[in-house]
UniProtKB/TrEMBL annotation:
One function term, GO molecular function aspect: magnesium ion binding
PANTHER family tied to this protein: 2-OXOGLUTARATE OXIDOREDUCTASE SUBUNIT KORB, 2-OXOGLUTARATE OXIDOREDUCTASE SUBUNIT KORB-RELATED
Protein name: 2-oxoglutarate ferredoxin oxidoreductase subunit beta
Pfam families with a match to the protein in the record: TPP_enzyme_C
Keywords for the protein's UniProt record, in alphabetical order: Oxidoreductase
GO terms, biological process: cellular respiration
The keyword Cell cycle appears for this protein: no
Source organism of the structure: Actinokineospora iranica
The UniProt record lists the keyword Nucleotide-binding: no
Length: 358
């Protein structure tokens, strides 16, 4: 196995995965299957972005695997000309964990939805993140159950009227980014399906990361939750709502006269963050984003700026830090065991804790 050199600093997440023999293009990642999502579905945009992005990794297609659970987004592996598996509802992270641990020569990706990942699959997701398995997890969030025809999901807003909540949902929704950071995920990002440039940049950084990388993607469902994110796509509204993160730069947004944004993120009491006008607090009060801060509390505070009404929606990379990965540690443990005490199957079979039944 050879390490990859793409001229990108810190591209450790792909170390050990064989490179392609010749340059590839987006069309090389398109399978012969007819793409079947509803017209206008945000999944088309994400699929196209991923297919266009993957050639930049320089990997062999046979060393890339997409594992999905159940849901509209989970049809993804069918449309990728790579290896893939349409697995069990909510269990894609568990299956992908086994694959990543057994096969360090693969680049393993998980595609899941807000229902698949955060309801029946909630436990699998948080334990994958805390273990820091070397996976890239794309969480498509349309705030609804689409495949099963419009029930509310774990990310639906309080009061959401759906087929399963005709009088409005009583549940308080998950914030997937907050959830991931609470599980101490080493990489967490968020992007919009309509923001091709922003989505591609977050995907690029996720691919470079060695460890669990979760990317939440706001994605429109035109049939059961159409327009859920329209306020983030209309130019004037988006300027006042979208807070884009760039490592090492002050967190500013809005239509400022100086072109840098009239609003900024400032530190508030008890370790939290808030939004203020730059003209009122001064440039020095604005937080400079540091995605590499070891303590996840700063990134968590950033995630809490995002509310159900999308008034301040933070996008970009919240956190990117290094920690030993579960799969690397598991393989090293096995090698240590082999070196210290060679396996002897007969000794195991005839050990003290075995019985002969006649």
């Amino acid at each position: 196995m050879t390490a990859i050199d793409l001229g990108l600093p810190g591209l450790s997440g792909l170390a050990g995965v064989p490179t392609a023999d010749e340059p590839q293009k987006a069309k090389d990642y398109k399978s012969d299957q007819e793409v079947r999502w509803c017209p206008g579905c945000g999944d088309y945009v994400v699929l196209n972005a991923v297919q266009s992005f993957l050639p930049s990794l320089g990997l062999k297609r046979e060393n890339i695997v997409f594992v999905s659970g159940i849901g509209c987004s989970s049809r993804f592996p069918y449309y990728m000309n790579t290896y893939g598996m349409h697995s069990i509802h909510g269990r894609a992270p568990a299956i992908a964990t086994g694959l990543a641990t057994a096969r360090p020569d693969l680049s393993v990706w998980v595609v899941t939805g807000d229902g698949d990942a955060l309801s029946i699959g909630g436990n699998h997701l948080i334990h994958t993140l805390r273990r820091n398995v070397n996976l890239k997890i794309l969480l498509f969030n349309n705030r609804i159950y689409g495949l099963t025809k419009g029930q509310y999901s774990p990310t639906s807003e309080t009061g959401k009227v759906t087929k399963s909540t005709p009088m409005g949902s009583l549940d308080h929704p998950f914030n997937p980014v907050s959830l991931a950071l609470g599980a101490e995920a080493t990489f967490v990002g968020r992007a919009l399906d309509s923001d091709r440039k922003g989505l591609t940049e977050v995907l690029r950084q996720a691919a470079e990361h060695r460890g669990s990388a979760l990317v939440e993607i706001y994605q429109n469902c035109p049939i059961f939750n159409d327009g859920a994110f329209d306020v983030l796509k209309e130019p004037d509204e988006a300027a006042q709502r979208l807070v884009n993160l760039e490592h090492g730069k002050p967190i500013r947004f809005g239509k400022g006269d100086d072109g840098a944004g009239e609003f900024g993120v400032i530190r508030s009491g008890f370790g939290s963050l808030d939004v203020a006008k730059v003209s009122e607090v001064g440039e020095d009060a604005i937080v400079v984003h540091d995605a590499h801060t070891p303590d996840p509390s700063y990134a968590f505070a950033l995630s809490r700026l995002s509310a159900q009404d999308l008034s301040h929606t933070v996008t970009g990379v919240f956190r990117s830090v290094q920690r030993p990965t579960y799969d690397d540690l598991a393989r090293a443990q096995v090698e240590d065991a082999k070196a210290s005490k060679p396996a002897d199957l007969q000794s195991l079979l005839r050990g003290k804790d075995t019985w002969t039944v006649v």
